[in-house]
Design a protein that fits this description.
This protein is of the alpha/beta class. The protein has helices spanning 12-23, 70-78, 80-87, 97-117, 133-143, 194-205, 210-231, 246-269, 304-314, 345-352, 366-372, 383-389, 415-426, 430-444, 455-460, 465-479; strands at residues 3-7, 28-34, 46-49, 122-125, 147-153, 160-163, 281-285, 320-324, 357-359, 375-378, 394-396. The protein is built from 16 helices and 11 strands. Strand 7 (281-285), helix 9 and strand 8 (320-324) form a beta-alpha-beta unit. The longest helix has 24 residues, at 246-269.
Amino acid sequence: MQNILLNNGDSNFLRNTFYELHQQKKLNFKMYLHNDNIKNHLNEISSLDVRNLLKENVQTLGFNKILGSDLLKYLEKNCYSNFSGQLDRLSIEILSQDEKEKLFKRYIIKILNILKTNNISVVFFQTTPHLAFDFLLYHIANFKGIKTLIFFRTFYENLILVSQDYRVNKFKPLLNTNPYIKNSEDLLNTNSSIWYNLGKKLNLKNKQNIFKGFISFIILLIKKTKYIIYNKQINSFHFLNGKINIFYFIYLHFKHLVKTILLKKKYIKNCKNFELKNEKYVFFAMHNQPEKTTNPEGEEFDNNFKAINFLRKIVDINIKILVKEHPKQLNIFSGDVRQLNFRDSSLYSEILKLQNVFFIPTNTDPKELINNSILNCTISGSVAWESALQNKPAITFGNTWHSDCVATPVISREIDIAKEQLRNLTNMSESHIKMEVKTFLKTISNKFFNTTISDFEIENTNTEKKIIQNQMKNLISQVI
């Protein structure tokens, strides 16, 4: 029987599903990793809070044993850059390169020890690994030949995919031998994603008046402060800092508020309004950061400027590129302190230096933007699929669940090939795009699993929970 490791074990739904299968002797749920305060650990199953790894002394773990090894060379070449960027979302104080290198070594040794001690044969990931430790865990397991399985959300509620890899040209969804979904053509006119609907609510929330927004911010800050004091909850932005002074905690939230006000002011100052129906343009939707959609899913295009700069090189210079910032990035009252390390006004200045590239207001109707463009672009966001559903071509810079759709491919890293891709896409008729979307959905329909991956989603779905739970059990039993 295979020994299973689950990362991230903070989802009660996933953890309990694995445990039930363990009790039924269908697998050996050996351990789970988590970074949240989980009070009720499962009987028989060992758990590890990854925060405790920070207490380990790398010298006592014997790092010298892997110096010069092929594994270390691989990780230094292929993983260190993304790993380093992910640490910046886990520490409000920017870590020095020396501190990052120590964590890099410490985590490598600890992961090797976990995998060997527990004789792990399969590692499950709740989503694309993107929080430094789990990112290394994925690549070490992959390098060592240990089976890795990642759950992927799609645009649709309770339809997920599973793949052993998240990267461009390596993402290959596994077959569901017992599919339980509607006719694939029903998906063409469906905007049923919980997260899609939350995005629409976010846009409405951003339009609320300043007074209501500030009151919401204060209430949010009080709740977060309560968690810090009474629940001893560690927020992601000071995960690596351990305990945090409560006054400093409050200061950081007001610092974020002021910085976002100034950032939003600069963005608005540089926005231009266009009569979209009269313009020939490519639309680029920026990403909120930090999120896994850029690091690691964007791979080398792990920030917005890299993608926009590359786009400018492959799009005819006479065609405008209209760029829209992600509304959440400029949400003054969001309290998302992680953003402090991931956006400043210099990024806007660099983008505006590019020829024929313009910012547009964040309240511009996205449907209108998509419908009037000749092409829509994103690193790995939902805009690409929304575009395809509106019979418009799109490109992404990172892999997505729909990258195999002819109308929404990943852009080539070779400029000449990328230019040819754009020519082919912009010459596609609406009927051609509609046909390609139908073909893709028909092809991938037997790879959808009718279940979910988080407690939030299972609590907010209209589907009977028992069906969701049974489908997850079926999924796990199939793929291992």
